[in-house]
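Intended use. Records like the one below are meant for learning the mapping from a protein sequence to its folded structure. Do not use them to infer anything beyond what is encoded.
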Amino acid sequence: TPDVTWKALYKVESKEEHIEKYVIKGRFHESVSQDILKSYLIVEYIIAHSYCHYPMYDEALKKALTMVEMSIKLQCKAYDIPLTYLNKNNKRKNYPLGQLIDKIIKLGYPAELKNKIDRLREMRNIFLHPSRHSFGMGMLRSPFPAIINTLNQIFLPLSYFHEKETKVLEIKAIEKQLN
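Structure written out for the chain above:
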């Protein structure tokens, strides 16, 4: 049975319309980890099922936001960046996500990617550390396209960003000569 919220707030008349409007398909390039592809498929299923229980949409969003953390950790492993350290008591501790993000960005990823990741991390923290019960946050504006784009960028090879920066510098040099 459909959750009446979809019809009352969003004028969704059928499950097919819900899927068409709200299930954002994950389109990922070939370098994106299989773990991410499999996880995002679950996100799509949860969104589809939210037609019957509206709060499931937020559960899909939570899962998608934790995938950003997963992608950072997968990239750390790919670049041999340790996920843990020994503290002063010689106990193994996990690096905070913010430090792992900084380590990845320092490899040569653009600062704009860090800003995107940080915004998604803030949203994730709101969901994972709630101060009260709520639902529907994800519907203010669908965050799924931004999540998909950020996941794709995290898995782009560093050479992509270097080539892009070189082209920008070449264009600026030509522009300077024309002025």
